[in-house]
Amino acid sequence: MGLAFLVLPLFGLLYRAPWSTLPARLQEPGILAALKLSLLTATLATAVSLVLGVPMAWVLARAEFPGRRLVRALVTVPLVLPPVVGGVALLLVFGRRGLVGGWLDATFGISLPFTTAGVVVAEAFVAMPFLVISVEGALRGADARYEEAAATLGAGRWTAFRRVTLPLIAPGVAAGAVLCWARALGEFGATITFAGNFPGRTQTMPLAVYLALEQDLDSAIVLSLLLLVVSVGILAALRDKWVAA
Amino acid sequence: MMLDARLVVRRAGFILDIELAVAAGEVVALLGPNGAGKTTALRSLAGLTGLDDGHVTLDGVRLDREPPERRRIGVVFQDYLLFPHLNALDNVAFGPRCRHVPRREAREAAREWLLRVGLAEHVRKKPRQLSGGQAQRVALARALAAEPKLLLLDEPLAALDARTRLDTRAQLRGHLASFPGATVLVTHDPLDALMLADRLIIVEDGAIVQSGDAATITAQPRTDYVARLAGLNLYRGHASGTSVRLPDGFTLVTAVPLAGDAFVAFPPSAVSLFSARPEGSPRNTWPATVTAMARHGDALRIELSGPITVAADITPAAAVQLDLALGRAVWATVKATEAAAYPA
Questions:
Q1: What distances in angstroms separate CA A137 from CA A54, A149, A176, B283, one per listed residue?
Q2: Which of B39, B42, B56, B69 should we substitute to test contact with A (largest number of A Cβ atoms within 10 Å)?
Q3: Which of A13, A54, B80, B270 would bridge B338 by S-S if both were Cys, CB 3.0 to 4.6 A apart?
């Protein structure tokens, strides 16, 4: 019964899809723009998450400091926070009159809300915890003694991390990055709140689906199908990694 | 002295405090029971554990405040810790590469080392494809390729089966002999220590209890551990002349007059057993009861309780003649001339 609950909506989507007009619809400019934007922002958000998240995972896994538990809890907040709330919070901080946004605007003339960069920020905000948790888990699982061995051979901490630890946790990092990318791709609430719904600029696939739903159900279904195919593809690719890990 | 160190490490319920001096080319073994502090000592020499007090001076340079990567050391770990994602060649080349030797030269040097340990055909193999003995040799080559001044070995043969251990021990002996730096080897296997080291340091409960070459230590053990190592019966008491009075009142007669605190030691083979109290010259005689019997090489090792606990080696024929069995009452004797006494 649980399986039916999960699978039925997907079947509904497939059943109701306008298969005959699918090829033509797929080539509509709006749909392609949304797809390209989604892929671009999800990839950028993953890149940002890697740059910020891997060091964070390292600190959480290896460093001993007071308040570590609190920091880890804070990192996982975006996981449980309703995405819309996340978007509002981002607006308050990065908006034109926000804590950081005001400074950014005054100093660099940079405004994040309602821009493509804003989409990347929103997606990274919700997706980074996945990466951090995945990499932290991989680091905890990796034997720290290899780093000791590297140190006795003359490797400084960065060299040891780069040449020994990173190769050993690469599968965990990859799995985390894929999860992060998939989550970023599917993000809606934070994106629409923080970045708005401007076609070509901030209208990612999920947002396009939402918009299309009000106008043309068949378009919405096509977009949904695309997202579904991508998501299922990701899951299928990941399944082996989970089993292997 | 190449290595001069005083290692003090304080933990809950345990304090390590030992002094160590090793010359260039010398191999010193830290031998002792589990929990003695030998591995802690090794790790503090490597810089993997901090010192609470003391110092480590290698070739005139103070090391105790330096992290491991700045010490000229090489470590062979008990389970080798070969990097799983690198093949044997790159594992061995790791040390030189960390010292900014260009990749090609590092690999050439690595190839040389692997040839020297007899693994020329295995250079491209990953650690999981190597046997225990091969992995051990790669670990040694990796440590030596970094051209350390101090080589540290933590139970280097412990992970090997008996047969491989024999061969590897012999090879290791050769490599250690040609290593110009100082070597400190930690082991709980006395045979490893005897075969590989020039000098033994016995560590128990964080302190050095005996130090010297193998012959001296086993001839005059100072603790139960060493006595068992040497296969001797050991007792401690108060000597007045040739009599040594043990704490519970029993007196052993020896051949060497001494005064004061003294040890008495004799091998199991010096103990003779009789069914009735014997006449004649042996000066130490006492009634005992058989508590255990086991084969020990060609002889039978008999454990006896009585005024003193003693282990005796008896020929099987003698055991049959005496009708030895558990619980049997016998008379044990040791000649005064065979009971060695020395100051405590």
A1: 11, 21, 10, 71
A2: B69
A3: B270
How confident is the model at residue A240, as a pLDDT? 63
Q: Which range has highest mean pLDDT (A6-10, A212-216, B212-216)?
A: B212-216
Residue with tokens 């003339």: A109
Q: Which chain B residue has the Cα nearest residue A143?
A: B81
Residues of B within 8 A of A146 (CB-CB) are 81, 83
- The CATH code of domain B266-335 reads 2.40.50.100
Residues in chain A: 245
Per the CATH hierarchy, to which homologous superfamily does domain B3-225 belong? P-loop containing nucleotide triphosphate hydrolases (3.40.50.300)
pLDDT value at position A206?
81
Measured in angstroms, the CA of A236 and the nearest CA of chain B are apart by 26
Query: So where are chain B's domains?
Result: 3-225, 230-265, 266-335
Tell me phi and psi for residue B303, to 5 degrees: -95, 135
* Across A157-161, B45-49, B224-228, B283-287, least confident range: B224-228
C-alpha pair distances (Å), A236 with each of A9, A240, A243, B116, B191:
19, 7, 11, 48, 56
Q: Tokens 């570590």 belong to which residue? A: A68
- Cα(B170)–Cα(B341) distance, rounded to whole angstroms? 35
Option in B47, B67, B142 nearest A153 (CB): B142
User: What is the rounded distance in angstroms from the CA atom of residue B30 to the CA atom of residue B241?
Assistant: 35
* Class level of CATH domain A27-244: mainly alpha
Cβ pair B138, B80 in contact under 8 A: yes
The DSSP line for A99-128 is TTHHHHHHHH----TTSHHHHHHHHHHHHH
User: Nearest CA to A74 among A121, A122, A117, A133?
Assistant: A133
Residue of A30 and A140 predicted with greater confidence: A140
* Residue of chain A minimizing CA distance to B79: A145
Q: Which residue has the higher pLDDT, B242 or A8?
A: B242
Min Cα–Cα distance to chain B from A146, Å: 6
Token pair 């405004």 in the structure block, residue: A111
Angle between helices A205-215 and A217-244 (to 10 degrees): 150
pLDDT at position A194 over 70: yes
CB A176 within 8 A of CB A127: no
Q: Across the interface, do A152 and B68 touch by the CB < 8 Å criterion?
A: yes
Q: Closest partner residue to A153 among B67, B85, B146, by Cβ?
A: B146
